[in-house]
Amino acid sequence: MMTQESKKEKTSSPLQAKLESLEETAAQKGIRIHYDRLEAAGLKLQGGICKIRGEYHLFIDKRKPLAEKLDLLTGYLARIAQH
Q1: Residue 64 lies in a domain
Q2: By the 8 A CB rule, do 69 and 77 touch?
Q3: Residue 5 forms part of a structural domain
Q4: What's CA 71's distance to the chain center, in Å?
Q5: Which helix (H) or strand (E) holds 43?
Q6: Model confidence over 24-64: pLDDT tens digits?
Q7: Within a domain: 69
Q8: Which helix (H) or strand (E) holds 57?
């Protein structure tokens, strides 16, 4: 019998691999990714990308679902490629 946790690991494995691939692509482009709890004074912050001293930093809430992290990272990489 498969536990719920091992089911989750098996179903998220391809997504996790894709996320890791996107993270490598971001690193090659000089983008630093930060997964943090984006919350201040009880307010949830959206996160996003900014350029600090010529270096891109992408902030993503670590509590977001894996699929949403993938969407965000894909979108930001596409946006930077246009510049």
Answers
A1: yes
A2: no
A3: no
A4: 8
A5: strand 43-44
A6: 999 999 999 999 999 877 878 888 888 999 999 999 999 99
A7: yes
A8: strand 55-61
